[in-house]
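hiii, so i know i said id send this last week but things got crazy w the move. better late than never?? heres the sequnce for the chain we talked about at the cafe, plus the structure i predicted for it. fair warning i was half asleep when i ran it
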Amino acid sequence: MFRATFTAVLALSLFLSLVAAAAPPPSKADLKEAKQLAADAQKALRKKDYGQAAAAYEAAESKVPSFDYAFGLAKAVELKGEPVEAWRVMLRAKGYGIPPKETKNYEGFRLKLEQRLYQDHAYLELEVIPADALVREKTDGQWMPPHGRWVNRSLSTLRIEAPNYIPTTVQWHHPTGYAAKKRVELVPASAYGRIRIAGSPAGGLIMVDDAALGSLPHAETRLLPPGKYTVKVEKDKYLSFTQQVDVRAGQVTDVNVVLEEAESAGQKLVKSKSFWGWMTVGIGGAAVITSGVLLALASGKQSEAEDLNATHTSGYEAYLAEYDALESDISSYAMGGWVSLGIGLALAGTGTALLVADSLEEGDESVEAAGADLHIYPLPTGVGATVRF
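okay and structure toks below
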């Protein structure tokens, strides 16, 4: 199991070897200074000043990149209480090339360090496709290829990204110390699509499958798996917009939105057949009642004229003037009454027709209940009418 984790760093070791081979050789001054720094590091180790020893070995390695100084640094860092960092430095030392006489020493230190790490850590080996994908871990920064890393026992959250691929987040549960492997293959961006929404008025809230996306005049979704999505746009004082959109791989689906202004209560009322129906029926009913009053007045004046003919005792000229006045009143009241009755009946009929049409539009099966109930009947003094709503 221990050797399985070690093989994950082979590519990195070869890379470091090539880098070391290509670097210019150190000068005599660098060699001398590095040797002195290594001696200082040994003195610090004897005094158990592991921090000073690590600093001296690190400075020596910067002067003369070599296995001896890097391996000494790894040991000092391990004694300092940083086993994960010691592991990384140890791998760097291997990249310089292990001298044959140090092979046993190196393997012994590696096994010791690995056993210590497994007490509190887990070793994760991540295979990523594409291989050059960027891997970030929330608490441990960026992972470099090969993507192997010691992590604390718990849960690791890895963010994996690569150009032209869909980024992904991986939750990796590793509660006990062991070597764990995982393969993550990113999906090419060409396998996904987008929705692009544009329109007016500015400020309209855009939602895709009930998740807020942005606002008009324009917004664009992230990459989405192919399929059907519901686009909804809302704004106060405007009618809402809803449309189902089919997202296809490698395509951008455009949605154009122009919200219509919502009508006010007054505007809706004015456009309502029901409003005008009841209004017309009401006015017609009032006209019919008025006609009844006028015809009753005409009938009353007619009775007065008849009584005048039967009972007048005044002179002929006075009688004729009074009778002509009564006849004029009778004619005016009668004409006004019959005209009002005609207008009232016409309006009541029109209003009833509007109410019937409105009822039919609403799917009401009882047209009769939606209309007005009009009754016209004779009276001793004329005509009466009743309108029930």
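btw DSSP finds eleven helices and 16 strands in the chain. thought thatd interest u
miss u guys!!
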